[in-house]
Each structure stands twice: as C-alpha cells, then as structure tokens.
Write a structure and sequence with these properties.
alpha+beta; 4-stranded antiparallel beta sheet; globular
C-alpha cells in the first residue's frame, strides 16, 4: 500500500515536477539534527533514502520521538505557516539523502500560481493530519497509563 502523504502519491505530477525543479540534493550523516523545535523554518526536505525521526520537547524528560520518515516523505511543514517556527525537531537516524527546498522560493511559487498553491497546500494538509494522528497515538503509547487504546473512538 502506498503512503498517502508521500510526494509521489500526494502531489500531482505537474506540480511535483515544478517543485522538484528547484530542489537541491543534500545528504546528512546519521545523528545530524536537521532542525530543533523553536528554530526558524526557512527550508524543508523530501527524503530520498534513509530515516529521519521527528521529536518533541517534553519538560523534564528526553525529547519524545513521535515519528519516523522515509523515502518520499516531507520533512518539515512549519515553513508554510507564519511565524515560520519549527513545531518539532528532526534528526537523521541513519545516513539520509534528501532533496532540499528553500521555503521562501516555494512560497513565492505558491503566491504566483493558485492551482500550484492549492496542490501544495492540500499535500501539506494531508501530511499534518497524518502526523497529528500518529503523534497522538505515539504520545499516548509513551505516557498514558493504558497506552493508546486503539479500540477507542475519537
């Protein structure tokens, strides 16, 4: 089953090609921090290979790893929303190869083309919804007395 938030399935080909036309290949060694919660979100990445973990600050504890991202997945969405501050942290769990994008350039492309903007916005929205659900389940598994209660209704 394909990942509904992967760029290859979530963004129509014409818009994916347009976005990829401004990509730069960037590699990160294992254990490299891509960004920290609270930092300025001025870029984002799409994973080509490897694994990136997402984490969240938990007062009095180590950061909680709330997700893992792999090939085709978006790393970072805070670049799209003012005040452009990272809401999570991210680290290369393994050596990671990515495509990197300058956020200001992508926002300008979005401002110039309503259809492109709608497609990218819908993609990022699906990513957000998926990650919010996954983070909720992960945090319940980590900190709730009886785990996530997968059988419960939302």
């Amino acid at each position: 089953m394909s990942n509904p938030t992967s760029i290859t399935t979530a963004l129509p080909v014409e818009y994916r090609d347009r976005l990829m036309s401004i990509a730069h290949e960037i590699n990160f060694p294992a254990s490299t921090r891509l960004f920290n919660e609270g930092g300025h979100a001025d870029r984002f990445w799409i994973v080509r290979s490897g694994t990136v973990t997402l984490d969240m600050h938990v007062p009095g504890r180590r950061p909680a790893v709330i997700g893992q991202l792999g090939s085709g997945e978006l790393v970072g969405w805070s670049w799209m929303f003012r005040p452009y501050v990272w809401q999570l942290g991210a680290e290369a769990m393994t050596p990671v190869r990515t495509y990197e994008f300058d956020a200001a350039s992508v926002r300008t492309m979005m401002d110039d083309d309503v259809a492109f903007s709608a497609a990218v916005g819908a993609w990022v929205g699906r990513v957000l919804a998926h990650r919010l659900h996954a983070a909720r389940i992960r945090l319940l598994d980590l900190y709730a007395p009886h785990g996530s209660g997968s059988d419960s209704l939302l």
